[in-house]
């Protein structure tokens, strides 16, 4: 459905340097990031990016350091101006907005969570959460009431009057999250929002985000370089390399059918049994082992269930109907690490 | 080898003519415009005269109370308040009350003037690399050129008195506040600034909600230095007719009165220490929130 696309990015180029506009043609003619740098001293930030981001889903953008993730997300609220291309949000052309329109757009439609939290050190937690509302000109009483609601919602009750420096990293990022949610923006930009946190806290934060999302149904654009994180929270994943989109699809699609060795290299270390569900490895048909598995059960849970039931195959069910059959062997085949095309380890810069 | 023995200098008469030319041009300029410029500064002079009179005329116990109160508001430290009271009592006891009040008056006015000019200038400088490149060398000159050199044109233009003295003090004391405001704003965390922008801040909101508050520790260090430098100019300012502790110091130098010089010198030091401690403590309190620790 066309109306379900919230953000649409078309032919977006960003080239850093004094003469970016002229470089677009060079890139279209096949110049790479390295050659552009070497020959023209311009940095290729984004290379012909096309993404349709669906509403009310979590869209993950991932790629190695320097692949252009931050550059891309900052185009959506025009913290960075593109060299050429088109960005539409709810059918509205972001690049055509005047200063005032852009300000209103940022105040009401799109909010952002930052990697290093970016809280105001001289303001208390409650004032930080209310920061976006203050900019909008919301009156103090309403601001505090709404901020309090979000403070409670992210589990920071009792810390309203603390300063950011008095909180741990995880707590600070909850303030950052509450601040972004408090403006009631429909779109949430998160640039490596959890990358600065240690793994356990990061998992907590992912759970908080997924919890909130179940209720709020925001359009979330989430950047990460951590594939486990991407697979855990992403409904869709875009993989960037040198500013270009290499692959986009659901987590399962990416794990099962990596577009090239760059992506294959990315996914080689992940826990595939946690990403793949039974429907992704099933075959057509049915059997009579007596065990039935819902189609979205992940392999990590399905395999022990089969062992426990002492069967080697099971029917895959969706909406009460058998849609296929899986065997233990299919599952084990599914979680085996795929060979790269050359049969050797491939490494990338 | 003549070239190496004799520097190829400008001829003596030429040089004299050049200097004369500059001198005459400037005295013509000051004859023509001196009054207009003086008129421009008149309100400032009236204010200074009024303020100085006010400080001198107020009963001393009330003044000491006010100083103690200000010290408390600024520093929140009993030690500093007691130090302030004792210093002013000693100053009065040794007969330096009036001169001290005159010095406090000019330092306060100079400081406010420098803050009023310096902070906006620093903010503008932080916005434009070009302006920074243009203003920085001027600030360097203001800080390094011997004060006596700029006393000459100031006195030629405005004669002797409070306003030229004030201008001389400000020329010397202005640079640190400008520099540190500029620096402080440039050092503001870029991600926080980006956050302000991402939430739709206007330019004013960015300046007042983020840039100035986050630059405040640096701006305050600038204010502190400005006060110190203004105090350092007290003696020189008294050479061109500013009343205060500098006058007896000058007299002491020319007549070799050791005790007089020492006492007034120490009074200046006492003022410096009080201003410094109070403004530093105040600056520290401003950034208490930066301290970590779980003060739940
Ligand atoms: N202002 C700039 N001027 C010049 N080059 C820039 C600028 N900003 C980014 N770049 C370049 O653009 C490329 C993409 O940078 P970007 O910050 O978007 O990467 P990233 O994917 O977010 O990386 P990381 O994971 O390290 O945050 C890099 O090569 C970077 O050097
Ligand atoms: Mg980045």
Indicate the topology.
The complex is a heterodimer of chains A (349) and B (296).
Chain A: E1 5-16, H1 20-28, H2 33-40, E2 43-54, E3 58-62, H3 69-76, E4 84-89, E5 92-93, H4 99-108, E6 110-113, H5 125-129, H6 131-136, H7 140-153, H8 169-182, E7 187-191, H9 199-216, E8 219-224, H10 227-233, E9 236-241, E10 244-249, H11 251-256, H12 261-267, H13 272-275, H14 278-281, E11 292-294, H15 299-309, E12 313-318, E13 321-327, H16 328-335
Parallel strand pairs in A: 3-8, 3-9, 6-7, 7-8, 11-12
Antiparallel strand pairs in A: 1-2, 1-4, 4-5, 9-10, 12-13
Helix pairs in contact in A: 7-8
Chain B: H1 2-5, H2 12-57, H3 60-75, H4 78-93, H5 97-127, H6 129-144, H7 147-158, H8 162-186, H9 190-198, H10 203-232, H11 234-239, H12 246-255, H13 258-286
Helix pairs in contact in B: 2-5, 2-7, 3-4, 3-13, 4-13, 5-6, 5-8, 5-10, 6-8, 7-8, 8-10, 9-10, 10-13, 12-13
The structure holds adenosine-5'-triphosphate and magnesium ion.
Structure commentary:
The complex is a heterodimer of chains A (349) and B (296). Chain A has 349 residues and is an alpha/beta fold. Among the domains of chain A are: 53-109 and 185-270, 3-Layer(aba) Sandwich (Rossmann fold); 276-335, CBS domain Like (Alpha-Beta Complex), CATH 3.90.1280.20. Chain A has helices at residues 20-28, 33-40, 69-76, 99-108, 125-129, 131-136, 140-153, 169-182, 199-216, 227-233, 251-256, 261-267, 272-275, 278-281, 299-309, 328-335, and strands at 5-16, 43-54, 58-62, 84-89, 92-93, 110-113, 187-191, 219-224, 236-241, 244-249, 292-294, 313-318, 321-327. In chain A, the strands form 3 sheets. Chain A has a 6-stranded mixed beta sheet with strand order 6-7-8-3-9-10, sandwiched between helices. With 296 residues, chain B is an all-alpha fold. Chain B has a single domain (33-295), classed as Orthogonal Bundle (MetI-like fold). Helices cover 84% and strands 0% of the residues of chain B. Chain B is built from 13 helices and no strands. Chain B has helices at 2-5, 12-57, 60-75, 78-93, 97-127, 129-144, 147-158, 162-186, 190-198, 203-232, 234-239, 246-255, 258-286. In chain B, α2 crosses α7 and α9 runs antiparallel to α10 (203-232). Chain B is globular and about 70 Å long. The N and C termini of chain B lie far apart (82 Å). At the A-B interface, α4, β6 and α6 of A face α9 and α10 of B. The complex binds adenosine-5'-triphosphate and magnesium ion (MG). The site of magnesium ion has 3 residues of chain A, from α3.
């Amino acid at each position: 459905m066309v109306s379900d696309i919230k953000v649409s990015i078309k032919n977006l180029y960003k080239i850093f340097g004094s003469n970016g506009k002229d470089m677009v043609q060079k890139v279209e003619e096949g110049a790479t990031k390295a050659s552009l740098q070497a020959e023209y001293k311009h940095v290729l930030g984004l290379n012909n990016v096309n993404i349709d981001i669906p509403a009310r889903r979590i869209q993950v953008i991932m790629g190695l350091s320097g692949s252009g993730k931050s550059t891309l997300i900052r185009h959506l609220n025009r913290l960075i101006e593109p060299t050429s291309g088109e960005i539409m949000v709810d059918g509205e052309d972001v690049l055509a907005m005047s200063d005032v329109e852009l300000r209103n757009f940022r105040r009401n439609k799109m909010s952002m969570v930052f990697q290093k939290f970016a809280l105001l050190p001289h303001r208390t937690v409650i004032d930080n959460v209310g920061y976006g509302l203050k900019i909008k000109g919301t009156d103090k009483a309403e601001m505090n009431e709404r901020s309090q609601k979000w403070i409670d919602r992210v589990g920071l009750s009792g810390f309203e009057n603390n300063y950011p420096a008095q909180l741990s990293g995880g707590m600070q990022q909850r303030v950052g999250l509450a601040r972004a949610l408090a403006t009631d923006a429909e779109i949430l930009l998160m640039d490596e929002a959890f990358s600065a946190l240690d793994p356990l806290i990061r998992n907590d934060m992912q759970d908080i985000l997924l919890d909130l999302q179940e209720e709020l149904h925001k359009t979330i654009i989430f950047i990460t370089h951590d594939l486990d994180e991407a697979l855990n929270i992403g409904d869709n994943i875009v993989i960037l390399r040198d500013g270009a989109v290499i692959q986009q699809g659901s987590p399962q699609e990416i794990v099962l059918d990596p577009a090239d060795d760059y992506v294959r290299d990315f996914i080689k270390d992940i826990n595939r049994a946690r990403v793949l569900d039974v429907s992704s490895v099933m075959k057509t048909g049915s059997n009579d082992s007596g065990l039935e598995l819902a189609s979205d059960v992940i392999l990590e849970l399905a395999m022990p269930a089969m062992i426990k039931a002492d069967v080697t195959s099971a029917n895959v069910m969706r909406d009460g109907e058998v849609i296929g059959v899986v065997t233990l062997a299919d599952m084990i085949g599914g979680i085996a690490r795929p060979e790269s095309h050359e049969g050797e380890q491939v490494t990338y810069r | 080898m003549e070239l190496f023995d004799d520097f190829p200098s400008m001829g003596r008469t030429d040089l004299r003519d050049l200097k004369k030319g500059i001198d005459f041009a400037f005295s013509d300029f000051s004859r023509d415009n001196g009054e207009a410029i003086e008129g421009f500064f008149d309100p400032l002079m009236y204010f200074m005269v009024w303020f100085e009179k006010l400080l001198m005329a107020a009963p001393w116990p009330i003044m000491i109370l006010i100083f103690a109160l200000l010290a408390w508001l600024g520093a929140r430290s009993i030690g500093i308040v007691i130090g302030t009271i004792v210093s002013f009592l000693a100053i009065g006891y040794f007969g330096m009350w009036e001169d001290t009040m005159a010095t406090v008056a000019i330092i306060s006015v100079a400081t406010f003037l420098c803050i009023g000019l310096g902070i906006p200038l620093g903010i503008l400088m932080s916005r434009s690399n070009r302006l920074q490149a243009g203003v920085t060398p001027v600030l360097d000159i203001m800080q390094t050129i011997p004060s006596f050199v700029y006393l000459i044109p100031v006195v030629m233009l405005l004669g002797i008195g409070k306003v030229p003295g004030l201008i001389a003090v400000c020329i010397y004391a202005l640079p640190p506040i400008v520099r540190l405001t500029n620096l402080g704003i440039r050092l503001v965390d870029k991600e926080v600034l980006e956050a302000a922008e991402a939430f739709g801040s206007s330019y004013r909101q960015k300046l007042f909600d983020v840039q100035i508050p986050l630059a405040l520790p640096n701006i305050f260090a600038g204010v502190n230095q400005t006060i110190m430098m203004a105090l350092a100019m007290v003696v020189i300012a008294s050479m061109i007719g500013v009343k205060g502790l500098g006058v007896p110091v000058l007299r002491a130098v020319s007549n070799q009165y050791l005790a007089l010089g020492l006492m007034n010198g120490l009074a200046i030091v006492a003022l410096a220490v009080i201003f410094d401690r109070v403004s530093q403590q105040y600056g520290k309190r401003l950034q208490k929130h930066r301290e970590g620790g779980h003060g739940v």
